[in-house]
Design goal:
Distance between the termini: 30 Å
CATH topology: Methylamine Dehydrogenase, Chain H
InterPro entries: Carotenoid_Oase
CATH architecture: 7 Propeller
Shape: globular
Strand content: 35-45%
Helix content: 10-25%
Number of domains: 1
Radius of gyration: 24 Å
CATH class: Mainly Beta
CATH superfamily: YVTN repeat-like/Quinoprotein amine dehydrogenase
Cofactor: Fe(2+)
Number of strands: 40
Number of helices: 11
Bound molecules: fe (ii) ion
Protein name: Beta-carotene oxygenase 2b
Organism: Characodon lateralis
Pfam families: RPE65
Length: about 625
């Protein structure tokens, strides 16, 4: 394994600050980057294989070689033509990606804890459960799920104490899982999979079943979240499950719509230091679709409570009543919720007729690059929506990094790309491809990079038009008033050219407990030289330098930061990540990195296979 330090390069030199002087000095470290073409050489990350099975697995590339990666410039705002699925745009030109089918393959759960082999040192101060969520079963009987997001939720627990680690996992006993298991076929429609009519019904019943509305799944396979101090597993429908973090057993099914008028909520709520949680969810009525800001109280008044006391802070009507934007998360600063209305649209009419037309929800998503992105500010304490619309070119964003207010501006950092069609391409068949077919899938996905938008909070009658309103030092983001209540924003890249070598960054994480909603310096994420993360990255906003952890053939999950006791600096702590590989059976390990140096402290090797997962959290029991 290697940890590399990279410095920002390819940045426009200026002569104003010491930061740029450092950049100039570090330009010597550029690895053959041609800035004009954004074309780079990327050393093959194909690991050595030692069995014929592995050779089969990696069919499609003849030998270890230098892969060529070309990152084209993103499309301009004025691009008018929606992309045809029959002739997709190619964003990169990568060849020789290793097949990762084995890390998107069904596994059995491990409900009884098993010990792990420790290599190196797991710090003694870490006490708690590292909880992770993700899909674990992709076939039921003879039926197969279509989309990566559809796999049955498998909950993982790495229990860390006194330098030792045990592991266990358990399939979420959701209604979806139980029904599928009982009938040995896919009974509940998922995001990318439409159920077939029950073969036991007569032909008339089967015909009528096509007119039923799709039932929301309770296969909560996206994240672990906390409300009022309790752990829940969440997807994006109205159903969550409360889960005991010790046993991983689901203890209660909780329906958002029993408490407030919403049809779902994201799997990425934000929590304030006192425990108050905010989330967003859609509601649908005869008047159209609304985006709702949700607030959940910080504490329970009775032990059996779940979402009692939850309120809708405000409702924002969708611009297109029948085609609201899809959002996976949102940002939160001290005083505001930031809702990003991106031009990924959900066609509600297609969704409600999906059973009849055999279209899954993922088939009802579309990317409309003719539309701008709109950032809405909602005041958390009054519920008032800012009359100012902050516009930006069409972007697609799944995960925000952080947001805070400073000197009259709201700074929002997020992971974004210039194309919004990736979600449809993450079907299981694509993930399991090999050779040129796999390369083709990767190359038609737009890379995701960390970006900063800066929103001026005070737009008054005398605020000038047609000039950049941002006067923060060293900030290259712009915000220009273009109308009475309109400000057009352009972003600042939060990275140097070197991040292109690692395929961009997703699954961002920060020292959330102390720095969410506050000025901060570091964020962490996965590099994406493949369809899943294949490196861990530490980004330093001062100088935009980065550190990298990588090991050929290994695929690390989202890095979760855990602060050490009595931490004084932002990066005093460790990074936890679950690392898996398609090239060696049962070679999963929990990786522990020193968050400051990004050097490996230790790993806990667990003899199981785990599919690549989505999100996790650390629950301290110290
Ligand atoms: Fe997510």
């Amino acid at each position: 394994m290697k940890t590399k330090a990279h410095s920002r390069h390819g940045c426009p030199p200026t002569d104003k600050t010491g930061k740029e002087i450092i950049n100039q000095k570090n330009k010597q470290k550029v690895h053959g980057v041609s800035q004009s073409e954004e074309s780079i050489k990327l050393q093959s990350h194909l690991g050595e294989t030692d069995a014929s099975k592995e050779q089969d697995n990696n069919k499609g590339f003849s030998s270890k070689k230098m892969d060529t990666v070309k990152h084209h410039k993103s499309r301009s705002t004025g691009d008018k033509e929606p992309i045809s699925r029959k002739n997709p745009k190619h964003f990169t030109d990568v060849h020789g990606l290793p097949c990762i089918e084995r890390i998107v393959t069904s596994v059995e759960d491990t409900p009884e804890p098993i010990s792990t082999d420790i290599i190196g040192t797991i710090p003694n101060w870490i006490h708690g459960n590292f909880l992770r969520n993700g899909p674990g079963k992709f076939e039921i009987g003879n039926h197969r799920f279509n989309h990566w997001f559809d796999g049955m939720a498998l909950l993982h627990q790495f229990k860390i104490s006194d330098g030792q680690v045990t592991y266990k996992s358990r399939f979420l006993s959701s209604d979806s899982y139980q029904s599928n298991k009982d009938q040995n076929r896919i009974v509940m429609s998922e995001f990318g999979t439409v159920t077939m009519p029950d073969p036991c019904k007569n032909i008339f019943q089967r015909f009528l079943s096509r007119f039923e509305l799709p039932k929301p799944t309770d296969n909560a396979n996206v994240s672990f979240v906390t409300y009022k101090g309790d752990f829940y597993v969440s997807t994006e429908t109205n159903i969550m499950h409360k889960v005991d973090p010790e046993t991983l057993e689901a203890t209660q099914k909780v329906d958002w719509s029993k408490f407030i008028a919403v049809n779902g909520a994201t799997a990425h709520p934000h929590t304030e230091p006192d425990g108050t949680a905010y989330n967003m969810g859609n509601s649908y009525s005869t008047k159209g679709a609304y985006y709702n800001i949700i607030r959940v109280p910080p504490t329970k008044e009775a032990e059996e409570e779940t979402l009692e006391g939850t309120t809708v802070l405000c409702s924002i009507p969708a611009e297109d009543k029948t085609k609201p934007s899809y959002y996976h998360s949102f940002a939160m600063s001290e005083n505001y919720v930031v809702f990003i209305e991106q031009p990924i649209k959900m066609d509600l009419l297609k969704i409600v007729t999906g059973k009849l037309t055999r279209k899954s929800i993922s088939n009802c998503f579309s990317w409309n690059p003719k539309l701008n992105t709109v950032l809405h500010l909602i005041h958390k304490h009054t519920g008032k929506v800012s009359p100012i619309q902050y516009l930006a070119k069409p972007i697609s964003t799944f995960h925000q990094i952080n947001a805070y207010e400073e000197h009259g501006f709201l700074i929002i950092d997020l992971c974004a790309s210039d194309d919004g069609q990736a979600i449809a391409n993450y079907n299981i068949q694509n993930l399991r491809k090999s050779g040129e077919a796999l390369d083709e899938v990767y190359n038609t996905l737009c890379r995701v990079f960390p970006r900063r938008f800066v929103l001026p909070l005070r737009i008054e009658p005398g605020t000038p038009y047609n000039q950049n309103l941002i006067d923060l030092p060293n900030c290259t983001a712009t915000a220009v008033r273009t109308g009475k209540n309109k400000v057009f924003c352009t972003h600042e890249d939060l990275h140097g050219e070197d991040l292109h070598m690692y395929g961009g960054l997703e699954f961002p994480q920060i020292n959330y407990g102390k720095y969410n909603m506050h000025p901060y310096r570091y964020f962490y994420g996965c590099g994406f030289r493949h369809l899943v993360g294949d490196t861990l990255l530490k980004m330093d906003l001062q100088g935009k330098e980065m550190k990298v952890w990588e090991d050929p053939g290994l695929y690390p999950s989202e890095p979760v930061f855990v602060p050490c006791p009595n931490a004084t600096e932002e990066d005093d702590g460790v990074i936890l990540s679950v690392v898996i590989t398609p090239i060696k059976d049962k070679s999963t390990f929990l990786l522990v990195l020193d968050a400051k140096t990004f050097e490996e402290l230790g790993r806990a090797v667990v003899p199981v296979n785990i599919p690549y997962g989505f999100h996790g959290t650390f629950s301290s029991t110290a």
